[in-house]
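USER: If only I could read backbone structure tokens as easily as an amino acid sequence. It would mean a lot if you studied the pair and described how this chain folds. Here is the record:
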Amino acid sequence: MCKKLSVLASRVSNFLSVTRRPERTPSVIPTSRVLWLVAFAVVWTMTGYGGIAIGQVAGVDDPSDMADSSGDIKRIEGWVDQGSLNLTMTVYGVFAPSVEDTPAGMTNRYYYHWLLDTDNNPATGYLNNDYEGTPTNLETPIGVDVLVQFGWRDGATNGVYAYTLNPSTGDEVELFQEYEYTIDGDTIHAVIPLEDLGLKPGQTIALSGFQEGASNGWQVDWVESFELTLEDTSPLAYNPDPADGAYLSQMWVSMRWSSDQAAVSHDVYFGDNYDAVANGTGDTFRGNQGGTFYVAGFTGYPYPEGLVPGTTYYWRIDEVNEADPNSPWKGDVWSFTIPPRTAYNPDPADGAEFVDPNAILSWTEGFGGKMHTVYIDDDFDDVNNAEGGTGQGPATYTPGTLESGKVYYWRIDEFDGADTYKGDVWSFTTPGAVGNPNPSNGAVNVKMTATFSWAPANSAVSHELYFGTDKHVVRNADKNSPEYKGPKALGAEGYDPGKLAWYATYYWRVDEVDNLGNSSKGPLWSFTTADFISVDDFEDYNAGDNQLWYAWQDGLGFGTPDKPPYSAGNGTGSAVGDETTASYCEEKIVHGGGKSMPVLYDNNKQGYAYYSEVELTLSTTRDWTEEGVGILTIWFRGKSNNGAEPLYVAIANIGGSPVTVTLDDPSAAQIDVWTKWEIPLQAFADQGIILTDVDKIAVGLGTRGNLTTPGGAGKMYFDDIRLDRPRVVTE
């Protein structure tokens, strides 16, 4: 009997220029299927899901060649269905054995990997004929571009994500965390949208795989490769016309598609709301029909009114055959956009910094635009209120040599032969102007305790700061507005807004004041706060007055008692930081952002306790119950040659004794990939911690309080310590 262990659908696609679409309802994953035993490395059309063809399945067998009774790879397969790459791996024994079922003397740690050569070119990517200096003896090595990992440890998932490798350093670059999967005895079945992997239908890739784990002494089981053409033969509509994501300069559209031969009719959904079309709600259902075209916006017939410029429309075709119990087959959601009447896609982009003073301006003309009137100046109000300019034909403009150290504003009005449409006011700066905002313009996942900073203009003698949640209000605010946060002296380019809201967008601007008292309106910047509470992401530490070891107390301490800052150290065998980098943090081995915390541990250090710990006293993130958070998340990474030591986290209230939660793996320090550790906060509350006023957090290696038994030594990395809301897990 198969139990779906979890459905994990959050993804972060940030590689190969992947654009993340709105979330879709996951397709149903079968809980079991027949695996055909066929010849080595073959391709065939597989039937399942009630007898429906689900695509060209390719796979490769692997012999039984490891001593472990579970985990030795037997076969890997791949196919495409409903826009997603399906990957399976079948093993001898049980794919995810319980701790009790793990052979005596072996550790319940398995790391399975599918390897994707996305360009099917062994000359590019990571060549898998060698592993850490050891030949793999593969007959058909591939150039690995993407790795999909499934980790299993101590009877639970550990490390379910996809990544690529930095070609210059070999470090992991994470693509996304988590994906849909099922486990059925000896087989895992993963389902990942092609777009999340940077893949497209029709593309030919090569796949291979390997497994390693402490369960077999870290012996690596390599699998030969096979080719797979990403053909989606599920009974879905395909070949949308207009193409998905197209821009159309017309007021009505004849939408066409290709139909699967299993369909006898088609349910049509259409509207300007993605979720409504995806879920078939509201008035998006436009009926069932036999033909493979649908006209939208043509007012001569009883169809919807003419399409609206500046609007994105969504449509979906479900294939129908009432004789088949699996019908209808829900189609993908496609889209097209009618451009706005106003100009768009400015170049330089809105908010661009330090643009060449000899820049040429360009833009995409608005829907129906025939003439374009250009307004540009270093005064926002003058540009915003300008009228009566002379139109031109080209969608480019050369303003001449611009002044350095300026914020320029420009606007394009479009004339379509009948009406004029006023454009948005865009901005850019030239070298020497105010810039380098922190948080950066457009930043996401910003901490709710963030402070602002910026680089002053060359001409500035002081600054005027504006901040708020309404874009237009902040843009137009003056000193009488509540958005005005007061003057800031030159040399004090910073602002603490106080605690920000959860997952909210903010806007701010800095006006520069020159030595004559003239104020120049600054560009509008924005950022969005995170949907989690950051305890520490290590991005703010530097070699100045905010050094890592000033915050995280280790065993060494720093300074002298009569010259603050000073720390006597905590008496353990830990040493935090890296004095060889510009920030004293780790800058290459990172999970998120550009920095992580390196920690040396030595649990056999003479004169010290036989455990190693670094501790942070919290100043702001003290209420560990707000916004419904319930999980402490810590990303860690060790080294395979580290001394085997358990990993623990301790937290404390003011004046109270710390309580500890230990990761249930005595060799956690030897895990050499970024691994997410999630700790229910209730585990601390059950030990007496008051979660509404947490004072300190510590991470350590060894057994906390051990003063008698020496242990191991090594180096660990920690990153992205944060508080998350509990995830909804579907059984």
